[in-house]
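Q: Here's a chain of 400 amino acids. Please give me its 3D structure as tokens.
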Amino acid sequence: MPSTKTGAEARKGANGARGKQRFDDVVSVVRALEPSYPVYCLRPELLTQTAKRFASMFPGTVLYAVKCNPHPAVLDAIYRGGIRHFDTASLPEIAQICDTYPDAHAYFMHPVKARAVIRMTHSAYGIRHFVIDHEDELHKVLEETGGQDIVVIVRLKTEDTGDSLYNLASKFGALPDEAAALLRTASEHGCKTGLAFHIGSQCREPKVYRQALALVGSVIAKAGVEIECLDVGGGFPANYANAVVPPLESYMAEIRSGLKDIGLKPTVSLFAEPGRALVAAGCSLLTQVQLRKGERLYINDGIYGSLSEMMQVDIRMPVRLIRLEGEASQRLRPFSLNGPTCDSLDVIPGTFELPEDVREGDWIEIDQVGAYSNALATHFNGFYPETFVEVHDAPPAAET
């Protein structure tokens, strides 16, 4: 039967310290709360282990990309994994990191920044690393910081190889000749310098990193400037139901080979900005079926909430049915999932295999929603997923 608890009553128990209450597993969440609202089921141990593993494999400093999932409980788990450096893109992100973790370091990695924000982050939070990709932006940073004791990191445009779901060089990045000129100009103004690139989110081909590093080598040679740091960006992928990607070891091997190819000096600090690879598997989403129309299921979250990525790119999350009373059928059928808003666009593309007798009041756990889910959720139509709980079972994807 559908829950009769109001959202306020149920959330009162679910939102504890830093927004979460602890449960053994997701079924225990359902039994305790019988939620008629979406619930993020966070697995902090998995997040912490993933952060530790990535940091142990990457030959440099790991900057977690806060934009991917800025929830305090997620950041806490990442921090417990040893991450002390963060890729931030705005004053609120920088403030969140610096005010919460006194020993952490934030880096201003957005190539376009308001003057007042440059000034504030530099003076109030001591930010020293600023990314730019244009001469005018360089002069903004120099004028607002005074140009003393800062590191200007030039973002380099990389070729779109089609191996990533998102081409992140379409909006930002300087061409090689431009990047070399920016390095020289920054150096002439007394700044330390660095280079950065981003080969695109959810990169499915490790060799792309080596190709980008070859481009970095040519820019360094053309600029004739000793760089302080090199940022290989993000793009490290997560496994989804429709995309089993190469192991992380393959990406690290290509990066190490690429660094060796260009003869990068060991004194150069190496950065990476993983987001999705650290958090995607660390959270699932508990939704409830509110109506069934044949093979169409109407659930309480959708593309205006936690599931917008499935509307934008070909990412498929694993699902499983949870029912408190009675056994669900072992026979599966494809169903479409329709979100809660009144917008007819609020339908997740494709279908999902679920028991053929799925009915109103059942719950569907959607796995691997730790990346770009709550971070992108809107308040459209008054629906907003905000409840986080902590669970300690294995995620559904690990059981398949």
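Q: Can you summarize the key feature?
A: The first helix runs from residue 7 to 14.
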